[in-house]
Design brief:
The radius of gyration is 22 Å and the shape is globular. Helix 6 links the parallel strand 3 and strand 4. The protein is an alpha/beta fold. Helix 3 packs parallel to helix 11, helix 5 packs across helix 10 and helix 12 packs parallel to helix 14. The chain contains 14 helices and 13 strands. The protein has 2 domains: 150 residues, Aspartate Aminotransferase, domain 1 (Alpha-Beta Complex); 236 residues, Type I PLP-dependent aspartate aminotransferase-like (Major domain) (Aspartate Aminotransferase, domain 2), CATH 3.40.640. Strands 2-9-8-7-6-3-4-5 form an 8-stranded mixed β-sheet, sandwiched between helices. A 3-stranded antiparallel β-sheet has the order 10-13-12. Strands 1-11 form a two-stranded parallel ribbon.
Length: 410
Amino acid sequence: MNPLLQKLQSYPFEKLRQLFTGVTPNPAFSPISLGIGEPKHATPAFIKQALTDNLAGLASYPSTAGSDALRGAIAGWLERRYNLPKLDAASQILPVNGSREALFALAQTVVDRSRGDALVMCPNPFYQIYEGAAYLSGAEPYFVNSDPARNFAPDYAGVAAAVWPRVQLLYVCSPGNPTGAVLTLDDWQELFALSDRYGFVIASDECYSEIYFKPEAPLGALEAAHKLGRGDYPRLIVFSSLSKRSNVPGIRSGFVAGNAELMGKFLLYRTYQGGAMSPPVQAASIAAWNDEAHVVENRAQYQRKFSQVTPLLQTVLEVDLPDAGFYLWADVSRSGLSDVEFARQLYAEYNVTVLPGSYLAREAHGVNPGSNRIRMALVAEVDECLEAARRIVAFAQKHATTINHAPINH
């Protein structure tokens, strides 16, 4: 067996399953899960219709590069969304079966295994695929802790100068999972300057880009590069997906886009990997990328939901409306419980599932930046999310009352 598999940690949801082992939730409450970031809003009917109308495509092998029509639809969306000059759909766009598998595959393409000191830089907390991709590419992950003073953006300025020459790939998640932080143009300028100096590839994971709470849409990496005069997007590749934007996580459809030379190498890798998209899924994806009305309505649903749930939770937890995404990243310190204890006891007493923040991070530079935080995915309909919030408030008030009258043992 590949010995690098031994470096992989249990996935956060497996850790959560183990945490709940032996716990019987209070039967007075129906189960509500805020644990998994799986969209629950209805899939638009026109996307499902496009899928079923093209089932004849099941009789044909798809190409890894995808159809001209799909690459053109993706390029058109990117140009409209980020005000970009015309992209070359043939060389700068590649459809993928969801951004997750492509994020993993890129590290296998980029990392030079002959260098025993190679690093893959990841935000911390982070999407666990980045770490697994680093290990299985033969590199080591290097974690950059989020900075609460900068809305949880990674603190790249705090990275020691000796680290940067070893970095071959840098994963960015903007808007961030779980923090919701969006990188600014100044952040991108800093990262591009470092990439120019040290030659590493930047992989920008932007799957939450269409769920946001400010009037202006989140800045994307290609958009930042264009604004900064980086016309051919050197060493830059971005990832996006229909899962959150269009509520179709089950069709596994996304894309990668960016520097043509890098994309060519990635296509070569994927030709052997076998990552081609089914023709019916391609047809449904074309329909989704070409329509914006359903995205506007989807975003409005999240905006209504977060505007009601966030103030309710703020009465007992330290939590703010994120820049973007569909997570709340809450500090539970006021409860007197750790993030793990909070999650376990909330499940036992009120049958609500949340994810401990420490499960989404690693201890790095003497701290786990997820400690004493929980991630709540507000993916269900508003009534269910509000009911979960009321239970969390009751739970937090109950424990706050308890700890006010008893010593806390740390």
